[in-house]
Amino acid sequence: MEFSLEVEKPSTIVRKLKIKIPANVVKTHFERGLAEAQKTAKLKGFRLGQIPISIVKQYFGDDVRHQVLHRLIDNSVKEAIVGQNIQTVGSPQIETPDHKTGAGEHDHTLHEDNEFSFIATVEVMPLIEIKDYKKFKLEQEKVEVTDAQVEKAIEKLQSSQAELIPVVNGLALADGTASSRPVVKGDFVDTQILGGLVKDGVVEAREDMKGSKLIEIGSDAWIPGFEEKLVGMHRGEHKTFRLTFPSDFAEKELAGHEAEFSVTVNEIKEKKLAPLDDECAKQLGYENLNELRVKARDFLILEKTQESEKKVRAQLLAGLFKKNPFEIPNALVEAQTRVLGQEWARGLKNQGYDDKTIGYIIQNEIQELMNRAQAQVVATLILESVAKEEGIVIKPEDIATELRELAVSSNVAEEKLQVFYAKNSGRRTDLEFRMRQERTIKFLLESAEITSVLASEK
């Protein structure tokens, strides 16, 4: 397609494509669009395909202009990118005389007798000339597990087997039935709640602020101050109180608003721990208490080892980026943020959270997700640059070995894995990518000077 092109480079990763399409080309495409519309247009009094072009233009001209505008933009941008050999990431941002991508409602205007010009802004992959990536000086925390840490881990396991039992030793109620001792920190309180927002002195009840709830006092899982209001209450007691949602509350429509709650204590429960003995260990799946302690120590050593290695890798990647800084394409960060958000949403869904709550949680943590996404994008680009520089490649026999080991560890027939990855080229490419990244990190760590230090010495 005929058009003129001017390329500007506002930064190392941004290209502005200024495109002008001559009036004759615009007119040709518009007339072609009318002819296409004529074939399918339907109007009362006309046979299909027999509506005069002038009538088609009168009734369907705006739709055709809209379609032609997008077609001209898409085709010319694609040709410009290919012709300039530009390696883009993400979608182009389009600015026309009437609209800019992402600017909300707009009215496309295409004048079929006039020249059409627009700007397409695209991001490109950064050019990384990797250097100074060997012999990094790194510090790795020594892995130490104390007896106290082992006992604390076992106590958590013991607590997971605890039974919730109703508390006793309370006062007698008016009907002669026993009450309970008052609520204290650490109790689990079975409550019936009715709540609503206070607006102009009137309480507007809300469905999402009522129902039966089991609340652990001291967990700080509720609005600040809510759990404290329950301390001192007895079974069967009722209380009404008001609190203000924090200004940074995840559910934006509640943030900063005053709410009123009417709470009835149905039951007060406390944890009853099973004795920490061989029988308890057997309930947890171990032969005896001694084996439980051994396995708990092994688990803590593995956990701390993995955390220590994770921190060393983070040091390495941060050092690489410091020595090899580059601009990071927003499109890559945004795409990776979406991936992380979707993974997190699936996890929350599996835990029983509803879609509305999941949305609030993710939105409240979006900045943290973006930070993680940016770190992952930086790591990927740097490691790929090192792999290219060092000629680190994954061969078919490497993948075969990896699948063999994966089959053993996952207790799956190797033939099934081979067939799966042979049929799913995308999954095979992902596997090859992960293996190359891992091999590159191993290469860098082997060339680094790593000093072991105690966590307290850092």
Description:
The structure is a single chain. It contains twelve helices and twelve strands. The chain has 458 residues and is of the alpha+beta class. The chain has three domains: 4-124, Trigger factor ribosome-binding domain (Alpha-Beta Plaits, 2-Layer Sandwich); 163-272, Chitinase A, domain 3; 308-457, Trigger factor, C-terminal domain (Trigger factor, domain 2, Orthogonal Bundle), CATH 1.10.3120.10. Strands 6, 7, 8, 9, 10 and 11 form a six-stranded antiparallel beta sheet that branches. A four-stranded antiparallel beta sheet has the order 1-2-4-3, with helices on both faces. α1 (23-40) crosses α2 (53-83), α7 packs across α8 (355-364) and α7 packs across α9. The longest helix has 35 residues, at 289-323. It is extended, with a radius of gyration of 33 Å.
| Radius of gyration, taken over Cα atoms and rounded to an integer in Å | 33 Å
**How would a crystallographer describe the biggest sheet?**
6 strands, antiparallel
User: Which series of helices and strands comes N to C?
Assistant: EEHHEEEHEEEEHEEHHHHHHHHE
Number of strands: 12
Query: According to CATH, what is the class of the largest domain?
Result: Mainly Alpha
Total domain count: 3
Main features:
single chain, 458 residues, alpha+beta, Alpha-Beta Plaits, Chitinase A, domain 3, Trigger factor, domain 2, 3 domains, six-stranded antiparallel β-sheet, four-stranded antiparallel β-sheet, extended
